Amino acid sequence: MLTTLVAIYTIYVALSIYVSVMQIGYVAQMKYRGAVLLKTADFIKAGTYSVKKERVRIASTFIEYIAFIFWMGYGIRWLTDYIHFHSEALSNVAIVMSFVLLNGLVSLPFEYYEKMVLDKEFGFNNASKGQFFKDLLITTLLTLIIGSLVTWGVYEIMVHSELWWFWSFLFIFGVIILVNMFFPTVRALFFDKLTPLSDERLLAKIEELMEKTGFHSSGVFVSDASKRDSRLNAYFGGLGKTKRVVLFDTLLEKLNEKELLAVLGHELGHFQHGDVYKNIAFMGGMLFVMFALFGNIPEELYMEMGVPHMPAVTMILFLLFLPVVSFFMMPLLGLLSRHNEYEADKTGSELGGETGNLYLASALKKLVEENKSFPLSHPLYIFFYYTHPPVIERLKKLDVNVGYIDKDGIKAECPVDLDD
C-alpha cells in the first residue's frame, strides 16, 4: 500500500513538472514570434516573467516531493513518537499543527523569492520586507488558531463515529462555507484597509448595475491593495447578506468608468448564473471523494509506515495527498470554470449596452497590460491550470479582432483601445 501511494505521488510530481517544462519551452519560443495585446518589449518581459515563475514552480514541486518522502518514510513517525500530552485530543491537534507548520517552512523560501525578489524585479510587489513578515505572522497565527479548532473538531468526530469520514466531510464543508462568508471581513481586519467608495456618481452606476441582476450587497468598498501589489483586481466577497463589492485602488486608477462597469458586469454575470455556488458544490464533491478515500485506508498502510492508527496520522495523510487529488480534478473544474467565464463575459457585455463588448474587451486588454500577463500558453498547461479561458479566446468570443494567428505565432497587435 505504501509503495502504491508513493508511486501515485511520484506520477503527480512527474506530470506536474512535465507540464511546467512544456509551458516554459512554449513561452520561451513564442515570446519572440510577434506581440499580441502587449507592446513588443512588454510582451517579451511578460514571457520572461512567466518562464521565471514556472521555474520556481518546478523547484518548489521538487522540494515538496523530497519533503513528502521524508514525511512518509520518517517524519510522521517522528511526530507521533515525540509529541505526547495527557490529553489524547491535545496530542492529536499538536501533531497535526506541527506538521502544518513544519511543512509550511518548506514552501516559505519559494513564497519569499516569488514575492520579494521576482515580483519586485518585475515591478509588481510594493510591499516592504516588514510588511511581508507581518502578513506571514498574522497568517501563521490565524492558521494555528483556526486550524487547531478545525483539527480538534475532526478528531472528536473520528473518535465518536464509525462513519467519521462522512460527518467530517460535512463539518469541513460547513467551515468552507463560513470562510467564504466572512473572508472579506477577515481580510479587512488583518490585511487590507477597506473604505466605502466615495465617488457617488460611480457608486450610483454600480448600484444600478447590481439592481439589474438582483445582486444585493452590504456595500461597495475600495481596498488599499496597492501598498502590496500593483496588479489590478476586484472581487465580490461573502455569501448571503455578507456580500460586498471590493475594488482594488489600482483598478480604479487604471480603468475608465465604462471599462470598470464592464468588469463589474462580468462579475455580476457570475452571480446571476450561480457560479459561486457551482464552484462550492464542485469543491464539496472533491472533498467528499477525498474523505471517502481516506476514511477507508487499509490498516496495513499504518503498519508499513510504523505509525499508530490514530486520527492525527489520517489527517496528515489527507493533507499530503490533497494537492494530488486537486491536480487531477483541476481539469474538470477548469472546463466548468472556463465555460462560466465565457457566459459571464456575455452577461457583462450585454449589461454594457451596444458597445458593452468593446469596453469589456478594452478592460481585459488593460488587465493584461497592467498585470504583465503573457497571453499565450501551451494547451497542456491550459488544460491543467487555467480556470479562465486565454484572453485571446475571450476577445474572439466578444467579436474583437485580435490579429492573425497561426502555428508560428501572432502576426498583428490587438487594436482594442477605448479610453474616454
SSE topology:
Layout: H1 2-30, H2 40-82, H3 88-121, H4 129-160, H5 164-190, E1 194-196, H6 200-213, E2 220-223, E3 234-237, E4 244-248, H7 249-254, H8 257-272, H9 275-294, H10 299-305, H11 311-351, H12 356-371, H13 379-385, H14 391-397, E5 405-406, E6 409-410
Parallel strand pairs: 2-4
Antiparallel strand pairs: 1-2, 3-4, 5-6
Distance between the termini: 64 Å
Structural domains: how many: 1
Using DSSP, what is the number of strands? Answer: 6
Query: Approximately how much beta-strand content do the residues carry?
Result: under 5%
Portion of residues in helices?
over 70%
Which structural class do the helices and strands define? mainly alpha
How many helical stretches? Answer: 14
Give the neighbour order of strands across the main sheet: 1-2-4-3
Largest sheet: 4 strands, mixed
Could you give a quick summary of the protein structure above?
The chain is built from 14 helices and six strands. Strand 5 and strand 6 form a beta hairpin.
Account of the protein in words:
The structure is a single chain. This protein has one domain. Helix 2 (40-82) runs antiparallel to helix 3 and helix 4 runs antiparallel to helix 5. Helix content is 71%, strand content 5%. The protein has helices spanning 2-30, 40-82, 88-121, 129-160, 164-190, 200-213, 249-254, 257-272, 275-294, 299-305, 311-351, 356-371, 379-385, 391-397; strands at residues 194-196, 220-223, 234-237, 244-248, 405-406, 409-410. The protein has 420 residues and is mainly α.
Main traits of this protein?
420 residues, two-stranded antiparallel sheet, 71% helix, 14 helices, disordered C terminus, 6 strands, mainly alpha, globular, four-stranded mixed beta sheet
